[in-house]
Amino acid sequence: MKSSDDWVCPVFLKIGLVSLCIGLTSLRSGHAEESGGTDAGGSAVPSQRALNYPQFSWDRIPRYMHVRKARSFTDHEVQYLSKFPLITFEKANGHLDHGSVEAGTLVAARAVKAINPKATILYYRNVMVHYGGYEADDQLGRIFGAFLRDRSGRTSLVRGRVEAYDLSNAELRSWWANSCRTMTQSPDIDGVFLDGNVKAIEPAYLVKEIGLAKKQQTIAGYHELISETRQAIGPEKLMLANLLRARFDDAGLEYLKNFDGSYLENFFHNVGDADYEQYVARGIDAFQTAARQGKIIAFTCGLATANRKAADSNDLGIDEAHASVQTMDQARQGLVYPLAIFLVCAERYSYFRVHEGYSANESDRWMRWFPEYDRPLGPPDGPASREGSVYRRKFRHASVMVDIKNRKADIRWTNPQGKQ
Fold first, then answer.
1. Domain extent for 353
2. How many domains does the chain have?
3. 127-167 pLDDT per residue, tens
4. What is the C-alpha to C-alpha distance for residues 363 and 283, in angstroms, rounded to an integer?
5. Average pLDDT taken over every residue of the chain
6. DSSP conformation class of 127
7. Stated pTM of the model
């Protein structure tokens, strides 16, 4: 064979090869416009990962679902779940009917994919907090020193009642990563949702209980765990983390290297010396930056008034409030502000969820459907503009304004013909 220096490809053949590559890429992704390049908002789309990313469309508000139910979902609930392009089945899912969280998650995932094979489904694991009900726990009991201990030897350190993993323990990390590999070997599981990241890397979390040296070891172990998990599940499976927070030096962007995206919660709970406006502005910047880099963003927010901690949250403000509202009118009033924030930030592969909690055990409020979800949205004209505390952005069928100083928002919708 001649070397590349000796052989010149004819122009017509080059054109044919390029066309063939483009065609194959379009067929593999199922959406030629999602296979790479830049979207209407100016965000970079990672073509090498687009094949594995969730479906996305600007036609309506792109939606995310994050839910758990101790027993099986009903047929009606599965039909509802099948509407979502991106779903995380949370801890304790299906374990009462199927014997373990793993089995319950697989049953739910298969039921959804029987209706919507294109749904992207993530398996939940907490990197820091030990929640029971997993089949993998049978092996955990054989790992010496799996849990962190305080100075008196107590292991129930999270909220005073739940164990926390000692991430400096290499055997513990291997067990954790292998449990994710086992689940993602199923074609019905498209990746892993990693929760508890903020607890792991926040320097002040549990430092009083375990000491500074052990906390530093835990942080180092966390970073090892992330690398080991990525290696365990392989590059074709997704890794999303509950990670982006304005509380960090670079709002969590500095930790996203090994992840395909981030879940966002507690967006409106300012911590430390930051005031509300400063904190939310940092969160918006982080959301916009990650989304424009092509990261998947799952933005979630409660319907409760902003800047409120959950009852069992610690003073560090890590956990989010999940208050309920009684009427649909109250819910719609609570929708506008977080939805406007989302629309100001969203790019391709950004998804929205507003909710009253993650549990589907008590009521059907997790299935609340707003009229706004059926309105045509259309792509954005470009990125949002900012003047002081006010952000504005236009979509084909909506105009958005957010004032984070006064905590006000307005979304003006048009019909497909552009009339008010």
1. 48-375
2. 1
3. 999 999 999 999 999 999 999 999 999 999 999 999 999 99
4. 31
5. 86
6. S
7. 0.85
